[in-house]
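Progress note, sequence design subtask.
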């Protein structure tokens, strides 16, 4: 009896150390998980609904807002309000993920859309509605198309950036469809003599991370009209998503500005033609490979 117990204990120890070696060396995953296997301190979307097959809802895109001077608590209260406006999509009560929002500077300035897309760094960088409100006010855009650059054109300019025209959310399966009108965007960029087709793009990812999605892959077989940049890996493998909002000094405004970071070159791509489609697969935990069924599919259609 004792020898049998010893063998069982030995097997358990070997299995434990084998798993630790696998997760630390063979398939490392820096995300922390709780006992139920969910990422720690994040929110959960409802992935199954009782609605009839094919049921979907269209989610309106909220306008940009001004965040300059607001306390951290006020910003998080606004975020919570936007999320709870569609509480039927949540699995549990919403609480802004600390890993995403804890570093917000209290009562500080934020990059403005006129600053980022027209006036550049310095004293005018905070001019206009807060560019980060594009994502804060639209939490169900798990991914939001961005250029991730700052432009200094001067006063004869208006903010030009990719903006979603439509978001449709499936109530039958974990799937969302976002539509963008990029033809007009490229036309406006050219009219301002800004780089257009040669520009590189990525996604703002704070909403994905806030809802527990930590890995992303663009399926090249179902996507069209795009190509990876020099350092891009997103069309080749599942990439770790890193994203949070905090006080930084890239704006070179006195006292700094709140903004999302970090920059991830592995997540960039370029457009080759329109119309285009980007088929993004999201996982909460690092997948064994890209053929593993995703936890969520977020699809872009771009005209």
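Output:
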């Amino acid at each position: 009896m004792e020898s049998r117990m010893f063998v069982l204990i030995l097997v358990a120890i070997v299995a434990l150390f084998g798993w630790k070696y696998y997760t630390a060396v063979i398939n490392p995953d820096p995300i922390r998980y709780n006992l139920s296997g969910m990422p720690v301190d994040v929110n959960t979307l409802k992935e199954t609904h009782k609605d009839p097959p094919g049921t979907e809802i269209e989610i309106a895109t909220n306008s940009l807002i001004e965040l300059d001077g607001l306390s951290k608590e006020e910003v998080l209260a606004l975020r919570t309000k936007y999320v709870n406006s569609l509480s039927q999509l949540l699995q549990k009560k919403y609480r802004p993920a600390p890993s995403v929002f804890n570093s917000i500077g209290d009562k500080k300035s934020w990059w403005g859309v006129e600053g980022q897309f027209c006036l550049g760094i310095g004293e005018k960088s905070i001019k206009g509605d807060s560019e980060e409100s594009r994502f804060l006010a639209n939490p169900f855009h798990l991914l939001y198309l961005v250029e991730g650059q700052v432009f200094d054109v001067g006063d004869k300019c208006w903010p030009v950036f990719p903006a979603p025209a439509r978001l449709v959310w499936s109530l039958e399966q974990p799937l969302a469809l976002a539509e963008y009108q990029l033809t007009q965007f490229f036309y406006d960029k050219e009219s301002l003599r800004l780089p257009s087709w040669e520009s590189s793009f990525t996604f703002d990812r704070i909403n994905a991370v806030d809802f527990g999605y930590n890995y992303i892959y663009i399926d090249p077989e179902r996507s069209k009209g795009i190509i990876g940049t020099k350092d891009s890996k997103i069309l080749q493998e599942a990439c770790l998503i890193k994203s949070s909002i905090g006080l930084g000094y890239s704006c070179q405004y006195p006292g700094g500005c709140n903004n999302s970071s970090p920059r991830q070159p592995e997540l960039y791509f370029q457009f080759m033609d329109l119309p285009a489609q980007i088929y993004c697969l999201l996982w909460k935990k690092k997948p064994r490979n890209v053929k593993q069924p995703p936890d969520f599919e977020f699809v872009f259609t771009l005209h």
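The longest helix spans residues 2-26. Work on this subtask will continue into the next period as scheduled.
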